[in-house]
Amino acid sequence: MGVPTGLLSAAWICFVVAILLCLLLAVFFVRRYQKKAYSERPVTVIATLSLFFVLLTMALVPVDVYIVTSMKDSDGNYQSWAETDGARSDITNAVLYGYYALYAMITVCAFILLPFAYFYYEEGGGEDETTRSRMCNALKYTLGFVFVCAVLLLVGGLVPFSNGSSDANGTHWEKQIVNLAQDLKSTGLENSLSFVVSVLTMFGTLFAVLYTSYGLASVPIGMIRGLSSAKNESLQVRKRHTAASERSRAFRARHQIRTSTASAGERRQLRQAEEEEKLLGEKLKKLEGILSSKWRYCLQALKPFATIFGIIFLLFSIFLMVTLFINSLDRILHSVGYKLGFVLDKPHITNPIDAAFVLFSKLFPFDYIVFALIVLYLVICTMGGMRRIDIWCCWIKMYKVRPGRTEPQGILMVAFLMIFCVLYLNTMVMSLAPQYVTFGSQKYNFSCTAPPNTSNSTNATKLYQLPSVIMETEVYYLNSNDTSNSTGNGTEYTYLCSGPCDFSLPENVEEGACTQTRITLLLNRFAYKIWFFGDVYYGGNWLVILMFLIGILHACIKKRQSSLSEYRDVDSDSSDDELLS
Fold first, then answer.
1. Helices 85-108 and 188-207, axial angle in degrees (round to 10)
2. pLDDT value of position 480
3. Please, are residues 57 and 426 in contact by the beta-carbon 8 Å criterion?
4. What number is the average pLDDT over the span 111-130?
């Protein structure tokens, strides 16, 4: 029996809508931050495609969960179309190939398209530079990235890695985790691609700690505090501009505008005074434009709403961090340790986001909408973190990220960093909702024995509930004739039980009782084979929490942003920051 048409239609319709929304979101971010005067079509296309492909990896997760959840009914029995392993493999492999296609495109963007475009525009400063010479120079640097990618592909495909701690002394569920990790039969090419993506995700942990966690704190706090008063700022700038003008006139009068007779130190002071006068004059002009704008009164009227939404978003950011802390604490207390990437057999501490998503998964596409909103919030906060921190290389500021003021090379660098950050967000959502992302709301059936003297219900009626963090374990009569055994304490009855799928399935449960999502197998494969990856992802969660707390403190004590923050010119040097502060 084939896959129901309704199931495929629902999955495809939601995914097509997600594709359009991801494309619109990618176009919006690029166009919003791109410098209009120097916008380049190749830069726009490459940056948009890079953001588009990496966002699609997140958009595919709820579809993946929906498919594995739909394979079973509410009692834990496989649907008629999913009773055989072959039928289940056919539809899950289609999702798997979708992930592979997206990861392949991300690899091409990260190692070929983005580096080539970046160095092409980086080499375009000289007037005697021809298009051919710029392309040759860009190709020369891009070959270095291609070489690194080739090395990673070879390492991932040829080097035999450990298959986890599958020794005979391991517990039953430890062995089951290893078996499930090895369940995905992969070729050398698939291993290579997974290894490259794992390396990119590992570096993405660093950038997410820097940008995402700080953005989660600074974006809502910035909405609460708002910008500095344009009127007060205009008065201060006017005083400074008057003082700078007087200093400039004094220098010119002293040397009668013949600066060639002045010493090197005096000429430097005159140049600094003139530059300060010019920059302050530009800022004063823009402030006066804001004060005379009709939109100023509209923005002032909307300020209370910005404060309210800022408080809501701050509480939501704190909620996300608390959930991440709960999962991280659960993993360090109840996991098998670093050798298997701190993976859990099942949630032991109540995770509110995970429990909510397991419930929402029964109401598809409601879970898709909520999931998309959370991802959108994380992406916006990541961009907000980049805008507030800017792009640095060690201690050197490379580019400022400003709406409508970011250079072409800066846009390409933003897209490059976003690839890393969003890949890490894939692992982060597994920590926020591990049960949902791994198994959805699947249940499995098993025979269990009820305590004596508790058989007082009719057939097929729920007898009692076993405690569970995510979903209740339901206990039913096995059949119309109770199977009973006489004991010294009374009669013991055997029932058919159904519980939430996890890695701690009883040994008497048949193989294939639960189906993992493909995203779980892909992301965890090298976390099991190379424990270092799983430990980096897990450690990144703690660093995100720590950086979030630091970000809250910094955002609260930091001076409020200038009312001209939207008009900052990225062409100005560091002195611009000093003058506009």
1. 60
2. 34
3. yes
4. 79
**The tokens of 95 are what?**
């999702």
pLDDT at 132: 81
- What SS3 state is found at 405? coil
Q: What is the DSSP letter of 496?
A: E
What tens digit of pLDDT does each residue of 288-347 get? 676 666 666 676 777 788 889 999 999 999 999 999 999 999 888 887 777 777 777 777
Contacts with 580 (C-beta within 8 Å, 6 or more apart), sequence order: 279, 283, 562, 564, 568
Nearest to 177 by CA among 408, 492, 520, 430: 520
Rounded distance between C-alpha atoms, residue 340 and residue 524, angstroms: 9
CA pair distance 92, 3, nearest whole angstrom: 11
Residue 569: alpha-carbon gap to chain centroid: 29
pLDDT of residue 192: 85
Task: Give CA–CA dist 563/299, Å, rounded.
Answer: 12
The phi, psi pair for 393, rounded to 5°, reads -120, 105
Contact between residue 166 and residue 339 where contact means Cβ atoms under 8 Å apart: no
Write down the H helix ranges in 164-294: 172-181, 188-207, 213-225, 230-255, 264-291
Nearest by Cα to 382 from 213, 206, 551, 204: 213
Rounded to whole angstroms, the Cα distance separating 493 from 483 reads: 6
Backbone angles phi, psi at 445, to 5 degrees: -105, 145
Report pTM: 0.81
Q: How confident is the model at residue 570 (pLDDT cuts 50, 70, 90)?
A: very low
Which of 565, 576, 580, 577 lies closest to 227, judged by CA? Answer: 565
At residue 13, φ and ψ (nearest 5 deg) are -60, -45
